[in-house]
Amino acid sequence: MNRNRILQVTVISGILLITLLLFKKVFLFDFLYNWDDQMYIVFNNDIQTFSITSLQKIFTSFYLGNYHPLTMLTFMAEYKLFGLNPFWYHLDNLILHLINCILVFYFIRQIAGNLILPVIVTLLFAVHPMHVESVAWIAERKDLLYSAFFIGALIFYYKYITKLLIFPKICETNRRIGESESGGAGEWESGGTGERGNGRIPFSPSPFRPFAPSPILLVFRVATAVCPVSSVQINGRNPALIALFA
User: Fold this and answer.
1) Given a cut of 70, is residue 235 above it in pLDDT?
2) pLDDT for 23-69, tens place per residue?
3) Dist. CA 143–CA 131, nearest whole Å
4) For residue 143, which of 96, 118, 236, 238 sits 20 to 30 Å off, Cα-Cα?
5) Cβ atoms 71, 100 nearer than 8 A
């Protein structure tokens, strides 16, 4: 293990430790009997009986207006193993949050190319007050699961587009466009024909542009995009995610 890898592991371990200490009191919490916990877990016969019928109901039913079979399957597994002991449900929520912190760090580390920005973004994500509900409230398991799959998908998508042969060419094209817009006109503006053109192409490589935004803006975009996914939606889309990919 090289020195850089050791440093990364040390940094993310420190962030995870801070997060664990911050949320340690969740292990003392009970179910919220007057909120969704009672309908999702405590009085939900569908997750308390493991059968084909129960599985069918989980995949075909809405619970309090929500359809999230994967979340209900995790509750079913926990009930099968631990009954109605809230400690294990809270533990699993916290573990999922820690996993999400690792995924955020890895994703931003890929984009930023340095260690400072991933540390800032991951720490902000880990201890942000808006995450208390998702971690401390058992019924909000769906937010944690969604975030894990969403950030994981971003990581694989970034790996995919950086391996495409066309992506480096698009980056170089946009770099030349930036030069032409800043007054550095050259052969690019003529398109290689000797005639002046407008120096533009009909598309640009969003979501990951070669001209990265300022560190502060990137921190805001990523942190707000991955803060509780049950936030305000515009036409079914999270405006923070739209800003991230703009």
Assistant:
1) no
2) 999 998 888 887 888 889 988 888 888 889 889 888 988 988 889 89
3) 9
4) 118
5) no
pLDDT of 109-167, one tens digit each?
988 878 899 999 999 999 998 889 889 999 999 999 999 999 999 999 888 887 775 55
- What percentage of the chain reaches a pLDDT higher than 90? 34
Separation CA 174–CA 138 (nearest Å): 46
DSSP assignment of 86-99, as one string? Answer: HHHHHHHHHHHHHH
> How many C-alpha atoms does 175 have within 13 Å on its Cβ side?
7
Q: Which candidate, 62, 129, 54, 141, places its Cα nearest to that of 99?
A: 141
Amino acid (one-letter) located at 154: L
Global confidence as pTM = 0.67
Beta strands in 67-198 (DSSP E): none
Cα–Cα distances (Å) from 141 to 91, 177, 210, 219, 230, in that order, read 11, 45, 36, 25, 12
Residue that has been written with the tokens 């019924």 in this structure: 139
Side chain identity at residue 152, one-letter code? G
